[in-house]
Design brief:
By secondary structure, the protein is mostly helical. It has helices at 37-53, 64-73, 80-98, 108-120, 125-140, 176-189, 193-203, 207-211, 263-273, 293-307, 316-328, 333-340, 345-352, 360-380; strands at 5-8, 17-22, 28-34, 218-219, 224-227, 230-235, 243-248, 257-260, 284-287. Among the domains are: 5-53; 176-355, Orthogonal Bundle (hpI Integrase, Chain A), CATH 1.10.443. The protein has 14 helices and nine strands.
Length: 402
């Protein structure tokens, strides 16, 4: 039996539209806070259509904060570091702005107001984009326990949202002189910082890849570093810590790679190997045998950067330096991609495209040569009269050029 309902106009202090209808059990339902009449009409049509088809579900009173906690806990196919990043965005940006609102009541104006708040708080455009992308995944993503899939929401309220433009930032890698200053500072400070700095500059390994290297990852006769593992986060298993570090797979399938190592790198690794078993960590620490990445940043790398007079420089900047040197040597983009472990050559160009030698000069030189060759051929055939001014010949309007 067809159901009925109607739209309630804004009155008094209420500035938004609402809809009233009866559910399949005859219980009157009310949904409000629609900014436009067309939004209210669309929702009413959706509700009445679902009632007629027998697919109607009552709006849930679950708040966004409750939903977000369940959503994050229900994700199975994401890395611990990704889960940790999601949790940070949810707790710092989404819950404070949307947490008390029922998921079923979320509307475009709520999300738009949240974005305005982030802009007022002077968050970077990248952070805002990442936050909205995660929110869209949570509410209406095609994979995972989204709000729409679970029946908590009936549409994607982020549709049509206007975001600030992404800021373009070109990577400026350290110079060779700056890298040697870092390596020199690391050598003066002693411990494993020197070997790690040298490894970063000469192989471009990511921090967590380098910390996860064992001696049996080195191809001693092939002069290669075989990246097979990385230190990553996972949920704590000791009941005391939410997260813990462990040895797992690298960032992505493409991160599994063999990096060509120089003779100096191989000699350094051979010196470190003396008296150590094959399965020992190259850079040992007290966190399950490896160095805790957070501890490395604070206690190993930060003092190196400060001593070199380059406070704020990250270990990851050595990775950018390595890529820049491969490019400067004339290596192909495909080779750079493979050595860096990028997921695609697009990532390589998006990150380092500005470092590749400009092609405009080469292209214009080829164009000029082809035109000069054509001119010579035509001249030889007796077809050129008054050619363009080249090499001191008469050009248009009788001018002579050099």
């Amino acid at each position: 039996m067809s159901q009925g309902g109607h739209i309630v106009k804004p009155t008094g202090k209420r500035k938004t539209w609402a809809i009233i209808y009866r559910d399949p059990k005859g219980i009157q339902q009310w949904e409000g806070k629609f900014k436009k009449r067309t939004e209210a009409q669309a929702r009413l049509n959706e509700v009445l259509g679902a009632i007629d088809k027998g697919t109607f579900a009552r709006p849930s009173s679950v708040t966004f904060e409750q939903f977000a906690e369940d959503w994050l806990a229900g994700r199975r196919q994401i890395r611990g570091s990704t889960e940790s990043g999601y949790g940070s965005i949810i707790n710092k940006q989404l819950v404070p702005r949307l947490g008390v609102i029922a998921v079923s009541a979320l509307r475009f104006e709520h999300i738009d107001a949240a974005v305005s708040g982030m802009i007022e708080d002077e968050l970077s455009s990248k952070t805002i984009h990442n936050t909205v992308t995660l929110l869209r995944t949570m509410l209406a993503g095609k994979r995972g326990p989204s709000a729409v899939r679970r029946g908590f929401a009936f549409h994607d309220p982020t549709m049509g949202l206007e975001l600030p433009p992404l800021e373009s930032r070109q990577i400026t890698p350290p110079t060779p002189e700056q890298v040697w200053a870092l390596i020199g500072a690391a050598k003066e400070l002693g411990r494993l910082g020197y070997a790690l700095a040298y490894m970063g500059a000469f192989t471009g390994v990511r921090r967590n890849e380098g910390l996860g290297l064992r001696f049996n990852d080195i191809e001693w006769f092939g002069n290669e570093v075989n990246v097979r593992h990385a230190i990553s986060k996972r949920r704590g298993t000791d009941g005391a810590h939410k997260w813990e570090w462990h040895v797992g797979p690298p960032k992505s399938r493409k991160s599994l790679r063999r990096i060509a190592a120089t003779e100096s790198v191989m000699k350094m690794l051979a010196d470190l190997k003396v008296g150590k078993p094959d399965d020992a960590f190259i850079f040992p620490g007290d966190c399950n045998g490896f160095i805790d990445p957070d501890k490395f940043d604070l206690e190993v790398w930060k003092p190196i950067a400060q001593k070199a007079g380059m406070a704020g420089t990250r270990f990851h900047d050595l990775r950018h330096f390595f890529a820049s040197q491969l490019i400067a040597q004339g290596e192909t983009a495909a080779y750079v991609r493979d050595q860096m472990g990028h997921s695609s050559i697009k990532v390589t160009f998006d990150t380092y495209g500005h470092l590749f030698p400009g092609r405009g000069k080469e292209a214009s030189a080829r164009y000029e040569k082809s035109m000069a060759d054509a001119r010579i051929r035509h001249k030889a055939e007796g077809r050129v009269s008054n050619p363009l001014a080249i090499d001191g010949e008469e050009g248009p309007e009788g001018t002579v050029t050099n």
